[in-house]
Each structure stands twice: as structure tokens, then as C-alpha cells.
Specification:
alpha+beta; Lipocalin; Glutaredoxin; nine-stranded antiparallel beta sheet; 5 helices; 17% helix
Amino acid sequence: MRILILLVLAFMFSCKSEVKINKLEAGTYRAELKVNDSLNLPFNFEVISEHTLKVFNAEEVIDVNEITYKNDSVYIQTPVFEGFIVAKIEDETLSGSYVKPNLNRVMPFKADKNNSRFNVSEKSTKHNISGNWETVFSPHEAEDRYIAKGIFKQQGNIVTGTFRTTTGDYRFLEGVLNDNQLQLSAFDGAHAFLFTATVTDSTMTGMFYSGNHWEEPFTARRNDTFELPDANELTFLKEGYDAINFTFPDADGTMVSLDDERFKNKVVLVQIMGTWCPNCLDESKFYAEFYNKNTDKDLEIVALAFEYVKTEEVAFKNIKRLKENTGINFPVLLAQYGTSSKTKANEKLPMLNHVLSYPTTIYIDKTGKVRKIHTGFNGPATGEKFTEFKAAFNHFIEKLLSE
């Protein structure tokens, strides 16, 4: 796979001085990423200018402004994440690859001017999946099995929504229900998700594809009362602990710990995260905004980044991009690089029963005692759940600050 990536880059960026430099033309495009021989994952983007475009997933709009050209190819760098698209432009058509170098992943990519995402049947569907769905992924595999909650809205054939899990959500999904066939997709620069399913009024049976490297079955049944386990009870301190401690470097090489003066007698949030993680990005944006609005309060946030990139240099480069793109003004420390393994992460924080999810947030009061640990993050794609989280967060932080 590494050889394939090098060939893709060499092919796209080979020096040919006589080649005309084609630029992106304004308009709405339909893109496809090739999942396998029979399936493509579609998404839409709008070119605003030759150096800016917007990617759309339901209500989500992702601004992309790192676009460069070389010879007959365009290089589209997605915000924050390492993934990029490299493609040749010819007659308003793009053809190339979506590449994630540090994971050795390549997906064939193509796009042309088109407003549609999925083809919509001229016939109205006889089913409506609006509501909540109790979901099980990999239902027949004990080791891989996990639960989720599907939350959907449907208007005519058009469906939007997401799947919530105990560790986060599956982004802003958008698609169609034609007759009894459901198709949903999302592309955010880090993840490319495709869901397909056969539905009735009360059941779903389908497949989930993450890029072209992972697939698993899922089943779901309509259940408006179903709830996931409490996110505040999944991760906890082992017996005998009431505090956490760590020492990790920042970008300047300074070793930072909770014993430092800046954290004393303050409420502290410790965010366990990764710059490669979309749910972490959602949470980081929320924390950055909250922190910047409350600099006059006895509150500190410190993020611990667990990075899969192979070198410390690249890890800190990605941390810098995250901070610049989100307005983060609190420390982001490098806790681990070379792997995003949760088992390895737990070795760095042995006082926890486990690191179940990126992200996870540890709430510490002014005395240094851990008061709550929140696993995962219900981001904007979860709608009402995100609103509920913000209200609960504000209430709990005010309680800690007042003590």
C-alpha cells in the first residue's frame, strides 16, 4: 500500500513543464470514493473559487481553503486532518485519489458537476424511518459487537441523521430511502462512511463501510425509548485513586503536569483526544469557544493528544494545525505517537479502568479531586443530545467553580 501511495503522488505530481494547469471551476460537484468493485460512496462539494470549496454533509458545511495546483493536478488538503485529495482536472471532471499517508490508505476518487448525492427514485417510498432505532453493529461477533442508537429524520425520500455509540457519533449522515433501500454517507476529511440497509417500518438490516478498509453488518429495530449507557459511568478511577497525574511535553519541549502552578486551585478539564479524530474535533471546537469566553474564571483545560503518526515532529505539526483551525488557547500535550491504541493509552494513564474512547474528558475540582469522567462526545450531528450536553456541561462547570 505504501508503494501505491508513492506511485499515486509521483503520477499526479510528475514534472511536465508543457502541461496546461487546469483550475477548479465554480459550481456544485458530486464526488465518489470507490469502496469496492460494486459500491461508491458519494458526497457533494461546492467550488467557490479556485482556492476554496465547501464540503456538505446534511447540515454540516466544511470550509476547505488549502488548495494548490501542480501541472494538471489539484491538491485538496482537508482541514485539520491529514487526508487529502489529489486529482487531475479535465473538462470539469476530476479523477484521482483520496490519500491518508500515515495509515497507508488510498481510495479512488472522481467528481463531476452534479447537484445530487444519491439517485432519488421518482416514486415516493412507502416507509418512513424518522425516529429512534436500537442498533447493534457486528451482532454475530462477540468480540466486535457494540450497540448504538440511530436517530433519523425523513422528508419524502431524503434521510438525515446519525448513529450514536458509547464513544461518539457517526457524523452528519445524509442519503435516501428508495422503496425499502436505505443509503447514507458522510465525508469529513478524516472518515468516509457509507451505510446501506434494507428496511421495514420497524427493522433495518444492513452494512457499514468505513472507507475501503473496514466493513461490518448491523441490525436495528425501532425503539423510541432506547437509551445508551450513561456516558458518565463508563470510565472511572480504579479503586484507591481519587486523582490523576501525568507529565507530557508541549510543542516547546516543556514538560507539563497537573502539579504546575497554572492548575493549582482551579477547576481543570483533562481532554483525552487525537488530532485525527472528528468527534475530538467537535469537542475541541466547543472547549476552545468556552475557554476563550471564560478566561476570567478559575478554569483550565489541558488536552492530551494520542497520535498515530510515526514521528514526534509530525505529531506536533498536526497539533499546531488543530490549534490554529479551532482557536485553542489551552495546552495540547503530546501523550503518545506512533499508535492510537487505547491499550497503550491506558498505560500512560494507569489510574483509569480503561481508555474506552477518544475523546474522554476528566473533570477535576479545585482540590485536585476527580469529580466526573465523561466518555465520548455527542457532537452537533446528534441534535437534541448535543443541546442537552451543553446545558449539563455549563451547569456542572458552574457548580465546580462555585465551590
